[in-house]
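User: For a reading group we're discussing how well predicted structures match intuition. Take TPM domain-containing protein. Before you show the prediction, I'll give you the sequence so everyone sees exactly what went in.
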Amino acid sequence: MTPTTYLSADDHAKISAAVAEAELQSAGEIVTILADRSDGYTDVQLAWSSAASLLALCVLVITPGFYLGLYDHLLADWGHEWTPRAIISLAAAMAALSFGVVFLVQYWQPLKFRLIPAAVKTARVHDRAVRAFRIGAEQRTMGRTGVLIYLSMREHRAEIVADEAIATKVDPQVWGDAMAAMLTHVREGRIADGMCAAIGKVGAIVAPHFPRADDDVNELPDRLIEV
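Assistant: Thanks. Here is the predicted 3D structure of TPM domain-containing protein, as structure tokens, for the group to look at:
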């Protein structure tokens, strides 16, 4: 499946320029990632399908006469006898049908992401951001001054993760201003502007703690990674 592309080539260039400008203020190295989603959430899809299957069985237990009568009316011949085996077969069919229908309808992405609990989305986005940071930025700069700005579109969530040197001097709550600046634009559909706003804020936050040296070298790519 081809990844969803949210930004144009001009948007990418704009974000790269914002990173380069922000890094002129400090020794910090800013990495930006824009993700369509942070997880496939197959486990959540299976959980809802299993719940629907269980609910169908519970309904059959509570109102067996209705479903047995409906089956007789629609499908069975006159004189149909409900043996234990027949009842179990009907229950299995109802459970399987409920599971399959709910599983399949969740392939419609707007519904699928509405059914994912907010706490689960927050946790998955955080985990994915941390993994991306470890791969793309952690310990990849001489001064341990990498910062990742991560935006996950389907979940409507973002994360800012900083390397050890910065994390020891900047309280995590301070990144809230950068997050707020980004999300204000993103909610209005201006993703590139949001990323640029966050980049500028991050640069301003890092600069007082890690001023740029005259011999500073750009250690990480300035380009946005879109996945």
